[in-house]
Amino acid sequence: MEHLLKGKFGRLVISSYSNQPIRYGTQKRMYISSIWGGRATERTKPLFYQHYKFQKREYGMFVVRALRGVLKIRYLLLGGAVAGGGALNKKYNDWKEGMPNLKWLDDVLPDNDKWNQWRGNLIELRDNVKNNIDIDPRIAALSEAKYAQLKSWFDQRLDDAVAAAEKVEQQSANSSSKGASSLPSLDELPDFIDRMYSEIKNEIQDKHTAFARPFAKKDGEEDRVKKEAQQRLNEIQEEMMQTQIKYQRELEKLERENKELRKQNLLLKQGRKPNLKKIKRSLIDMYSEVLDELADYDIGYNTQDQLPRVVVVGDQSSGKTSVLEMIAQARIFPRGAGEMMTRAPVKVTLSEGPYHVAQFRDSSREFDLTKESDLADLRREVELRMRNSVKGGKTVSSEVISMTVKGPGLQRMVLVDLPGIISTQTTDMAADTRESIRQMTQAYMNNPNAIILCIQDGSVDAERSNVTDLVANCDPSGKRTIFVLTKVDMAEENLADPSRIRKILSGKLFPMKALGYFAVVTGRGRKDDAIQTIKDYEENFFRNSKLLKDSQIRSTQVTTRNLSLAVADCFWKMVRETVEQQADSFKARRFNLETEWKNNFPRLREQDRDELFERARGEILDEVVNLSQVSPREWEERLLVNMWGKVSGNVFENIYLPAAQTGASETFNTAVDIKLRQWAESTLPAQSVECGWESLKSEFQKFMQRASQAPEHDDIFDQLKRAVVNEAMNRHKWEDKASDMLRVIQLNTLEDRTIADKRDWDQAVKFLEASVKAKMKESEETLKALLGPSVKERWLYWKYQSEVQSKRQQVKNELDRILYSNDKHPPILSYDELTTVRNNLQRNAIEVDNEFVREIWNAVYRRHFLNKALGRAYDCKKAFYLYHQQMDVDCADVVLFHRVQQMMKVTSNALRQQITNREARRLDKEIKEVLDDYSQDQGKKVQLLTGRRVTLAEELKRVRQIQEKLEEFIQALNKEK
What we know:
mainly alpha, nine-stranded mixed β-sheet, two-stranded antiparallel sheet, 34 helices, disordered N terminus, lipid binding, Dynamin-like GTPase OPA1, mitochondrial, GTPase activity
């Protein structure tokens, strides 16, 4: 406060009552005491009171300013803190988002429960092996080398798991302290394995000692000891079988866990999650796609396709389909009671997947094989495809049905199920069924890289087998054959000599060799049994089978699981050995085809049928567009010409000639009106529509013909274009309402008998004259055909008349005399005139009948009538004035042709409007529909697009596709290695 007062009042204080300055210093205490102590005198009180008031106000203003500054600083600090906190939070979020996502470690690293479960499994394995294995004392006689081999094998199995677990433990310790703290120690596992084997060995030796002790007794007890020993031996063998099954299950469990550990180890090394299953699935799928391409390219299964596949062959009802279903682990094929069900090759691609599903190559639907409804649908679809593939009265087909089956634990391979070999043809089969099946089977087996899965029914006599001879002929050395004996349960039950099965499975009974021999049981004869039920039945059978107990067969030769493993190993071994060679052969094939193309078609681009079809489609549709370029006048002129060509015969024969032959103008007009109305109400509209349709067709064909004559025209499309246009024309139907509309217009036009002006009259006369001249030309040609060469031709060209033509000439001469004598003769000869003509001819020794004379008369009178009509047309050229003055002129035929001409003009105009407004667009639509239909019909393309240029381009494209897919598959195969 002192400092404050010094700053404010320490310099000089002026009293209001004195001019003497009061200096701060000597009287400091007095003044301060006066101000703050309140002891000022009355003289000084006003002055200090004023100073006090001033000081108080100044102090208050200072405090306010100080508080405002402090508050301002606080707000600045607070705002800066808030803004800085927001910026810091944003920076933290950006940094956090930029950090790599480590959630994948939760999916990769197993939790504590999984590690404890894995460790418990190992402990349980030790207890099971120690407590459950009761070894036959006779096993103690095994050599130390056998023990060492068994120990080495089992050590190798567990060492992989131990090594993988140790690597995972080490990686986890570096990446996650939590994970490291939960990992168990695996250092004691090798010692545990050694102790386990030592205990087993000691127990076996002890049991051997106990087992051998009874044999040291007296000779009288020898039989009883042998019997007890045999019984004890059987019990021990049964226990050994059960223990072996348990042991195998434990090993499979350890293998799965070892596989999972290896995958996790690889993940930790690469820093990402590998999808090994996807690689395997895609690998077999890629190979299957190659085989599908080859099936389309090489339908006849020539030697060009030598890629490996597993060919399943066998006699009919030998169990082929059942074996394949057991390998696929699903009932995917239809079944029949004694009926041939497999009628076409079925290519089944097996691959591992998370879900058990099936799918056809050309379908997007997936069948869930765990649902019975989907299984039933799948079997129906397979049966339907087989029946649809059989054509032309055949019983079997070579068309391949391709499908894919995916599921957990399936071995990756491609199998082809073929129709079973038959010995006898039934009456409902085609005559060549047996030979067709044999040829198809041999074609697949003759592939030097195909693995033959020979299926033999164990319940029938070996002498009844047909398939073994075929297999022996195709693969005499047995290097790619695997023999499978089915229905072993029935065979064991029915055979009196069990050693016969041993001979079969040792390759000593059938005249064929094989890589391996297997015995399986694929059911109990019940088609409704599930796959798991059959597997349990098979496992239980072989567990109790005397064949195994008596050591007739080895345990590795039984069950479909061992079979599928062996087949898959053999399949992939063959693929790896031969696929690059096959790729090289297709590369050479491609080079030869490309060389042929360059030599024969150097300036043309390679186009297959699909590409050529699209080019043809564009050209055809371009010609349809050209129809819109035809002018209305051109349409009407062409329609008039076509219309008259369509109706001229009816106008002359049914209207004009009958009406003109009545002989009077009144009757002529009446007959014309009646016949014109009947014509317009009956056939004229239909004839007009037909004329319009033919005009549209001819005009479109003219454009197509013009395009075919262009310099850049490619004649490879001609056959296809003609077929498309003809098909569209056959489909096209004119609108029904068009006939009704034309009928009304035509009736109204034909009822008008007036000719308004000279121009219309001249046009009608010209039309009549041209029409009569055309008909006269036809009549002259008809007479010439009847009479033969004329006099001029006979004299100048040395042509002669036949006897009949000579008679006709004589008859014509007589008929000319009749017409010459009566220019207005009616169109029919009277009986007297016929008699006269015949009598006159008889004088010249010519005998003819009345029909012969009438035939000549019709042609002669027709020409005579047309000559008279042409004369009247010439006379009527200048008669319009008389007609206009309603004077009596003989020009009724001019009026008739004027009415017909006007009707055709009106009809042509209406047809032209219908064509341009409706029919051209409808034709365009129908042509597009035909093109769409043909585009989906590969047979039509093959039929209409022919020639070496097409086939060479098709083959070259397909070979390129196959080679590219093969190279892609080889790259993926090498990566998997």
